[in-house]
Design goal:
Blueprint lengths: L4 E2 L6 E2 L5 E2 L6 E2 L2 E2 L14 H43 L5 E17 L2 E12 L2 E6 L1 H5 L10 H7 L5 E6 L9 E3 L7 H35 L2 H11 L1
Antiparallel strand pairs: 1-2, 1-5, 3-4, 6-7, 6-9, 7-8, 9-10
Helix pairs in contact: 1-4
């Protein structure tokens, strides 16, 4: 390791002898710290402790960005598939406007993988036949203080006898036969969601991937032979 002090008179370097005669020229002066070295009790900006802290922060940042990358990828994929299927389900299908008279609303809560799953349905009469519909799109268009959280609140919002304007798709089955009349034509909302995902999600994934790659290159530099040699010199 290089000497830590230098005599200003003759330039002799030494690791000690502060406030003592210089062994080379006899000048009694305090040896000055040598350039590129740290004074006693001070820590270099590139000391092993600061490098370890930087590596820890880099690892945490990479972990957070990797989680965001995964969530963005899964969210985009699931949303894209659901929107694409919903659009194709009604594309080209005949439909007409009518009304559904609610017989009884149903609030169902079940345990899911990521928390409780809530289904809000209604049984009603459409053109003399009993049909089922998903009430969530209808509730989003109804003025209310909050979304219903139990059967009683749902009964107050959608009591039996409520008439809901709907589209009837006679060739479909199940809840797909009934859709709430919206500002957009049937399937158009799903199409817009699909196009939004195709435009925005790939950009977000590319940005996150570039950040992760850049930070991994920085972290790799801390493990390079040159950096390890500098770190080893401080330990000696």
């Amino acid at each position: 390791m290089a000497a830590a002090h230098r005599c200003p008179a003759c330039g002799f370097e030494s690791d000690s002898f502060p406030n003592l005669p210089c062994p080379h020229c006899g000048t009694v002066v305090r040896f000055e710290p040598r350039r590129g070295t740290s004074a006693p009790g001070q820590t270099s900006a590139h000391s092993p402790s600061s490098q370890a802290t930087s590596v820890i922060l880099l690892n945490l940042t990479i972990a957070v960005l990797s989680l965001a990358f995964l969530v963005c990828l899964l969210f985009g994929l699931v949303t894209l598939i659901n929107s694409h299927n919903a659009f194709n389900r009604v594309q080209g299908q005949p439909y007409h406007a009518t009304t559904l008279q609610v017989i009884r609303p149903f609030y169902q809560k079940s345990a899911g993988m990521h928390g409780p799953d809530v289904s809000i349905l209604a049984s009603g009469i459409v053109e003399g036949k009993q049909e089922w519909m998903n009430l969530v799109p209808y509730l989003k268009s109804v003025p209310r203080e909050r979304f219903p959280e139990n059967q009683a609140e749902l009964n107050d919002l959608v009591p039996p006898g409520t008439e809901i304007p709907v589209y009837l798709f006679p060739n479909l089955k199940g809840q797909s036969r009934i859709q709430v009349i919206d500002v957009l034509p049937p399937g158009e909302a799903s199409r817009k969601t699909e196009m939004w995902v195709l435009k925005r999600v790939p950009v977000a994934i590319a940005v996150l991937g570039a950040l992760i790659f850049f930070l991994m290159r920085i972290r790799r530099s801390y493990a390079s032979p040159a950096t390890q040699a500098v770190t080893a010199s401080y330990k000696r």
